[in-house]
Amino acid sequence: MRRRGTRRSGWYWLLLVPYVVMLWAPSFNSMTPALGGIPFFYWYQFVWIALTAVIIWIVYRLAHGGDGA
């Protein structure tokens, strides 16, 4: 019998994507293209905040199989 929260899932590897992207400086080391006057450096990081939240939600749903917990 498995205890809740001990199940391992390969979906957790998806959580590394935001860390790798944000630590890889050449991916955002630019001032252009600007979006609404905001330099690329800033809006790129704000976009990744939202994407990270979506990735965490996806991993949670897939890893827990929609058990409602």
**What's the rounded overall pLDDT mean?**
81
Structural class: mainly alpha
- H-E order: HH
C-alpha Rg (nearest Å): 16 Å
Distance between the termini: 18 Å
Tertiary shape: elongated
User: What is the strand tally?
Assistant: 0
Proportion of residues in β-strands? under 5%
Query: Which consecutive residue ranges, at least 5 long each, have pLDDT under 50?
Result: none
- Largest sheet geometry: none
Helix content: 40-55%
Helix count? Answer: 2
Quaternary structure: single chain
Tell me what you see in this structure.
The longest helix has 25 residues, at 40-64. This protein has helices spanning 16-23, 40-64. 0% of the residues are buried. It contains 2 helices and no strands. It has a domain at 22-64. It is elongated, with a radius of gyration of 16 Å. The protein is an all-alpha fold and 69 residues long.
